[in-house]
Write a structure and sequence with these properties.
Layout lengths: L1 H17 L15 E5 L3 E5 L10 E4 L17 H7 L5 E6 L11 H19 L4 E6 L1 H12 L4 E7 L11 H8 L2 H10 L3 E2 L1 H11 L1 H14 L4 H15 L4 E2 H13 L2 H4 L3 E2 L2 E2 L9 E6 L7 H5 L1 H4 L5 E6 L5 H4 L1 H6 L1 H14 L1
Parallel strand pairs: 3-4, 3-5, 5-6, 6-11, 11-12
Antiparallel strand pairs: 1-2, 2-4, 7-8, 9-10
Helix pairs in contact: 3-4, 6-10
Length: 350
């Protein structure tokens, strides 16, 4: 009996160490790179393997979590997959957590950061336009940039990126539209002008409470003796739990103008003093969505096809959830090579 109690006590201790007592390490990039620009609130990282003079691929991660999700590990890296499938020159934006110096940033600032990155890549290569792969929030921000300065885009790939924020049955959409604006404003006020990362994580958890508050912990308990499973769990959970704060103005503008008023698809959004007309996007456009995505349902991505002015559209539906669409092993191995082959084809045709 004592041995059973001792064993159970030991398991409980290991469970605690694996969950609420675990110290989360800071997110890290997996692929060797150099920093081309560091503006404090954002940086531009260059992962290129050579200096061949050709258009580069710029990956724009979402701002809501650590940007390292696009270079998660050696086996799960969107950056690495691009490097392995026809593109030797790849860069990625890295968004910083909002602090005293960046707390007033808005959507205008994010779009200007994308355009400044493209300008820097042009100074490196001599090419005016480049391929841009925008992931989630980084996707709709990239679409805005492409509408404002279309000549800088050789192609635009939107990955799990909402363009019509009211299409489909997304859980985030439903929550944002049902709660009064005062709720979001109060959260930013509690964060002293920024939207705290811990509030965002809790919000996503509450979209799937049974999965996040019960099934996850049951799985941990059942796999405590499986070192390989626990290592994979730590990798993703540590990234998810790394707090990243958003500037209050950016967050509130996105809630009000996109999730509530759906201004982007309606052609009523203004950025950098100009109306954003998606029909100005003339470069080829690739649309990548996850069939199991409860954050950005495919309909929100597909809406770009009718909105942009491009004559070349490519769709890819991946059997994955939101994050799995751009970092899942199956997605990267079985689906992304076709997407990247299409980008090369468009480049060769240009």
């Amino acid at each position: 009996m004592n041995s059973v109690v001792t064993s159970l006590w030991g398991r409980q201790q290991r469970f605690a160490q694996a969950t609420w007592l675990r110290q989360v390490p800071p997110p890290a990039w997996s692929t060797t790179h150099r920093v081309l620009m560091d503006e404090g609130s954002w940086a531009l990282r260059d992962f290129s393997k050579d200096e061949v003079s050709r258009p580069m691929v710029l990956v724009v991660p979402p701002e809501v979590n650590a940007s390292t999700i696009v270079d998660f590990s050696a086996e799960q890296s969107l950056v690495g997959t691009i490097l392995s499938h026809g593109f030797s020159r790849v860069a990625a934006l890295c968004w910083g957590s909002a602090d005293e110096d960046s707390r007033e940033r808005g959507i205008d600032d994010s779009v200007m950061s994308i355009l400044a990155s493209l300008e820097r890549l042009s100074s490196l290569t001599g090419h005016k336009s480049h391929h841009v792969v925008g992931v989630c929030q980084g996707g709709w921000e990239s679409a805005i940039a492409a509408a404002l300065q279309p000549d800088r885009f050789a192609s635009l790939t939107l990955v799990a990126a909402p363009i019509d924020f009211h299409a489909g049955a997304g859980l985030v959409q439903g929550l944002a539209r049902s709660l009064p604006m005062a709720v979001f404003e109060n959260m930013v006020a509690m964060g002293e002008g920024v939207m705290r990362g811990k509030f965002i994580s809790s919000g996503f958890d509450n979209l799937l409470p049974f999965e996040r508050y019960f099934l996850k912990y049951l799985s941990i308990w059942n796999h405590l003796d499986d070192a390989e499973w626990m290592e994979r769990f730590y990798e993703l959970n540590d990234w998810y739990r790394a707090p990243k704060d958003l500037p209050g103005p950016m967050y509130l503008q996105a809630v009000r103008e996109l999730f509530k008023d759906n201004k982007l698809i309606k052609g009523r959004m203004e950025v950098m003093g100009r109306r954003v007309e998606l029909s100005n996007i003339r470069c080829p456009v690739a649309l990548v969505a996850g069939s199991k995505d409860h954050i950005t349902p495919p309909e929100q991505v597909w809406a770009a096809e009718a909105a942009v002015g491009s004559q070349k559209i490519f769709r890819r539906l991946i059997p994955a959830g939101h994050v799995g669409t751009f970092m899942g092993k199956q997605a990267l191995a079985d689906h992304w090579p076709a997407v990247l082959a299409k980008l090369r084809e468009w480049e060769d045709e240009a």
